[in-house]
Amino acid sequence: MTDMTDNGNDASNTALIERIVRREWDQFQRTNNEGGRAACQGNWPVFNQMRTSQFLTWPEPLLTSYLDDLTEADRVGRNLVTEKYGRMMASTAPAEYRTNIEPYIPRLSGDRIAEQERIIATQVAWAADFRARYPKLGMAMRVLTTAEDTAEATSFETYLRGELGTYSDATLMLYGRMIDDYTTAGRNLTEDTIRATVRLGGFADLAEAEAAQ
């Protein structure tokens, strides 16, 4: 697998990532937040950095498939960002989720949920490993597990579950393949993603960013 965070990404991937992040941002702007517009909806620089750092770790076929998901969603009037946050509420606001969200979003099959949970278990373990090795950077991350969710704080696990739930079957298949490739190579996706984040933030590497916290 190409390490996008170490080798840089070619022009086609750069263009794909820019298109994906812009489409997500547009959908984010159309996401209604209970209590009014959220402050983060006006912070393009942080949104761009965080989302770009995630996609820098993705291979081109996965980027292309996810861009297709976003394009199709716009075509049919779906908002994948709204759905992502809605799915998170299954944990953070379960009564509201059951009444106001679950009936209006695509229902996932048992096999689909099982594959998502397989991926999530791997990624939660990677995130825990990263936090143990880089505790200062880890403190800046979300809380780790769904058991730690509150009405005000959404965990890494719950956020990931919400996001995976919005992917098409084709995109999830490619995403699962990437996770398997990472596992085979003995690599950690959380580490690669945060390495990309700190580089975009001006640090040379994770060690420098950790020391600066």
From TrEMBL:
InterPro entries: DUF4125. This is DUF4125 family protein. It comes from Bifidobacterium ramosum.
